[in-house]
Amino acid sequence: MMTLDVVILAAGKGTRMRSSLPKVLHPLAGKPMVSHILDTTSGLEAERTHVVVGHGAERLREALAEYPVNFVLQAEQKGTGHAVAQSLDGLGEGKVLVLYGDVPLIQRDTLRALLAPVDEDHMGLLTVTLEDPTGYGRILRDEAGEAVAIVEQKDADEQQRAVRECNTGIMAMTTAQLRRWLPQLSAENAQGEYYLTDVIAMAAAEGVKVATAQPSRPVEVEGVNDRRQMARLERTLQADIAESLMTQGVALRDPSRLDVRGSLTCGHDVEIDVGCVFEGDVELGEGVRVGPHCVIRDSHIGAETVIEPHSIIEGAVVAGHNQIGPFARLRPGTRLAVGAKVGNFVETKNAEVGEGSKINHLSYVGDARLGRDVNVGAGTITCNYDGANKHRTEIGDEAFIGSNTALVAPVSVGKGATVGAGSTIDRDVADNALAVERSKTISKADWQRPVKRKDH
């Protein structure tokens, strides 16, 4: 078995993206394009992975810090051949797979097929047959049908431009072959660059056969040069994710209106309506129903929970049989016990809501713990921030908090206690007690309302 080195070219600026962010770091389904490639190649058991960086090199190093890769600097961008040459000193003595950081949808099986025939007598070249090959280098074959050269679009004559089999730029060879061929590259072409593709002609001249492979579909090898192409690949990847979810039994009201930007795991009989976005790691238990236009990020949603439209859930753990929304916002640290309800226009943060408890509408509950079967009336807020520090509110089992109440933390409301509507509570309330704090109501009969003067 020959060892494997993977070389990923990621030094380009991506001028047509019109962005200060290096092109390969632009997110696709929630993670950088180049990360998709690294995740794909992780299953190829390569001994070393090299990422050739140039423009925005430090940002790439930071973004990919968790990956076990060797960064290689290409200080001047002089073409693909020059880029690969920068990695020569770090290569082993086995196979080398050359990939591109802006071609994110390449599949592992395609790469395995490309690598399989590579030895000292064979190199691998990934080609693709396109209806419209404009802009791509063309594959030139001899009378025996063997690939013998690649000619770039700008250097091709009319007959060569009619060829529909195109170069993807993805190839594999041995380190020994690279060491022989790279020093022979020339920049005498329309672009004034060192083309890695010129090694195909060198292989043919040596009698090294060029074994070609093709992807299962052209989009695998489609690169990103501008925002339009980025959007097209995003929708392709999202369509693939939707197809996979539906195969698993998830009911999607419209597969074209789903965005998964991370990992989404679903139990049986999950229903997802239109316009929903899932970010980070999200788990939906059996029978969960998600209404239209919800955003769920890094959260676990327990079985039989109903999430009404336009709700935002982040960093929350929802035990199950819960009702959330519409227009609810569960912020990080929210934990809902079984059967708890968070209704419309309610915001929670770092809050534990006990079994069967209800915060039905128009309330804010933060840095708080609610026992079981607590009722929080409309307009209630926990005043948890004093301008410098956060403080907690504790509400016991079966407590009743009347509407328009302000609970000034740190404060506790005992088990079975009742707080009258419109109260501001800044002292602890004992178990089963009634707490009411209101100004006296003044009513004046026959009150004459002021009238606007005509001279104003």
TrEMBL record:
Positions bound to Mg(2+): 102, 225
Positions of region (Pyrophosphorylase): 1-227
Binding annotation for UDP-N-acetyl-alpha-D-glucosamine: 9-12, 23, 74, 79-80, 100-102, 137, 152, 167, 225, 331, 349, 364, 375
Functional pathway: Nucleotide-sugar biosynthesis; UDP-N-acetyl-alpha-D-glucosamine biosynthesis; N-acetyl-alpha-D-glucosamine 1-phosphate from alpha-D-glucosamine 6-phosphate (route II): step 2/2; Bacterial outer membrane biogenesis; LPS lipid A biosynthesis; Nucleotide-sugar biosynthesis; UDP-N-acetyl-alpha-D-glucosamine biosynthesis; UDP-N-acetyl-alpha-D-glucosamine from N-acetyl-alpha-D-glucosamine 1-phosphate: step 1/1
Signal peptide: none
Keyword Acyltransferase part of the UniProt annotation: yes
Catalytic residues as annotated in Swiss-Prot or TrEMBL: 361
Cofactor: Mg(2+)
Keyword match Transferase: yes
Catalysis performed (reactions): alpha-D-glucosamine 1-phosphate + acetyl-CoA = N-acetyl-alpha-D-glucosamine 1-phosphate + CoA + H(+); N-acetyl-alpha-D-glucosamine 1-phosphate + UTP + H(+) = UDP-N-acetyl-alpha-D-glucosamine + diphosphate
Cofactor note: Binds 1 Mg(2+) ion per subunit.
Domain Mannose-1-phosphate guanyltransferase C-terminal residue range list: 262-337
Keywords assigned by UniProt, alphabetized: Acyltransferase, Cell shape, Cell wall biogenesis/degradation, Cytoplasm, Magnesium, Metal-binding, Multifunctional enzyme, Nucleotidyltransferase, Peptidoglycan synthesis, Repeat, Transferase
Region ranges (Linker): 228-248
Domain MobA-like NTP transferase: 6-130
Annotated region (N-acetyltransferase), positions in chain: 249-456
Top EC class for this record: transferase
Self-association and partners: Homotrimer.
Similarity remark: In the N-terminal section; belongs to the N-acetylglucosamine-1-phosphate uridyltransferase family.
Name the record gives this protein: Bifunctional protein GlmU
Protein encoded by which gene: glmU
